Amino acid sequence: MNNFTIEVGTVDFSNEDSVVLSFTESHQTVPKVVASFLNSSGAGQVSVFVSSITTLQAVINTSSKIIGKVHYHAISSIN
Questions:
Q1: Three-state SS for 53?
Q2: pTM of the predicted model over 0.85
């Protein structure tokens, strides 16, 4: 049976295109991270991607500067 650490949250962007996310859960292995931006203003499409993932943090990037929240899920296996 596999055991996992699952973390769900949001990251605030304030006219930025990159934010460092510090994980709140203890990840024993580097997690898989997915992120999305809910654009409620209807002001065009924004791509979200994740880079520089470690067991402690990840960098959340967007294709343009945004104001709002990016939702993320980080999932890692427990050794």
A1: coil
A2: yes
